[in-house]
């Protein structure tokens, strides 16, 4: 079970302030210091540094934070599994990035949930960075992300590989012949916000050619994929979006794909969870079940409840 000193330590990791933690936990600041001192004695290492009036985690503190985050998360799941033995529904905190949520996993997830009435699911759609933070907080159990993550902190399983494609308005000269990335720098680029997986993959592909978003003639940041598609369809710039997000629009003639001279920009969409979780096999089973549901959806089989 979670020790009260563990709770104090993890809260200080979040606030980086003994004063704020004392206020949040309704204890005194000396009590916070005492809890941290006890843990430092128990582990034989300093957990926080205080320099220039700022508190920061030491390397030892980071190791302990990551380990305890997994333990706290798994303890919650254990309690829920025990409760489910008496008929209570099990809960699942499931995160998805915007593109993955709307265009990749929604249909398979619906099919999966129809088959699992024993689950109480909370689905959160957000950027990759936000989802990673929620995994560490314990508010999510697993997440499907399209962005980059530290493989030293998370275990995971690739769900699918998606291609990032360039699109423009129908009838644009840009779609008449293959273009290099350099050819497109003179265009107005409509791009997702900083922190989104789609943007990170684009920036990575540009950096591989010593290019950057700053090289485009103009950029407009938009947080909504659908708004980006509407702007581009009406001639307001070009965009790089995952093929799954624009497939129907291109088939309907609402958008037009710009053929690139370079090899395709592809990236894995990956299910991840905290490294070292006791429930790894369960999460891998979830990925397998969702993959089966995705295959069934593509084949057009009717979902069963």
TrEMBL record:
It comes from the Bacteria. Transmembrane segments: none annotated. Pfam families: HTH_1, LysR_substrate. Residues 1-58 form the HTH lysR-type domain. Keywords: DNA-binding, Transcription, Transcription regulation. InterPro entries: LysR_HTH_N, LysR_subst-bd, WH-like_DNA-bd_sf, WH_DNA-bd_sf. PROSITE patterns: HTH_LYSR. Belongs to the LysR transcriptional regulatory family. This is LysR family transcriptional regulator.
